Amino acid sequence: MDEPTTRELYLELLTKVVANTIYRDAPVPSGWVPEAVFDQQLRENGVDWPSQAHTMVGLKRLRNVRECLERVLADDVAGDFVETGVWRGGVCVLARGVLKAHGVTDRRVWLADSFRGLPDPGDDGHRLDREMGLHRFNDVLGVPVEEVRANFERYDLLDDQVRFLPGWFSETLPAAPIERVAVLRLDGDLHSSTTDALRALYPRVSVGGFVIVDDYSLPACRAALEEFRAAARIDEPLVPIDDYSVFWRRAR
After folding, report:
1. In this predicted model, what pLDDT tens digit does every residue of 63-96 receive, in sequence order?
2. Contacts of 17 (CB under 8 A, 6+ apart)
């Protein structure tokens, strides 16, 4: 078996650091996961809400991001990396690290987020969004943009290839100065957030690019995705990443 290269070692270590499987921080107990001590399997699958780690998506989904990015680089698929819903920014830190490790200087990493949590769906919001009521947890889910910038600085990865889009997706994404997307990662949880992101950004995803949906296990997100794919006549199969997330590669 070949020894891993320096690049591979760096990216695997970066993956573990943003998920903090190194120092194994305790999770924040929630209604979904009441545990208050670190559990490797929960962190592997992105189930817990870490108290210190820079991402909650888990190692399996982080490795999927790296694999998709390295595939579009190998296949010369045009476009940037975009994540909608970034929390503490760990996934985008990894994405920037992948570009850096491969010496890529002509692609950007875009972070789209309100940087204050999830919107209150209110009486007029989608029924599934109201039922989840995730805005009640904005004390954990809302991370200021200044904190996310500071996290990038800790890794020496904050530069002009990293761009921030603060605000609600419906307001920021339609006019965002993003020409082409090679990897689009959706992590907005809600029906409204998923729909807004897909409507604004899917037309910019290059053929051969990837769409990753973090929250497919949530009924609101799944319904929005299925409605959009049906309306857009997208028939590429959804590939599971773990028990919670899926992705597909755009074929046409």
Report:
1. 999 999 999 999 999 999 999 999 999 999 999 9
2. none
| Whether the Cβ atoms of residue 90 and residue 19 lie closer than 8 Å to each other | yes
Spell out the long-range contacts of 235-240 with Cβ–Cβ below 8 A and sequence spacing 24 or more: 238/213
- In this predicted model, what pLDDT tens digit does every residue of 201-249 receive, in sequence order? 999 999 999 999 999 999 999 999 999 999 999 999 999 999 999 999 9
- Neighbour count for residue 191 (Cβ, 10 Å): 25
- CA end-to-end distance (rounded Å), the chain: 37
Residues 99 and 159: their CA atoms lie apart, in Å, by 12
Ramachandran area for residue 233 (φ above 0: left; ψ -120 to 50: alpha; else beta):
left
Q: Domains of the chain: which residue ranges?
A: 56-249
Class of domain 56-249: alpha beta
Is the distance from CB of 109 to CB of 203 less than 8 angstroms? no
79 vs 250: CA distance, rounded Å: 13
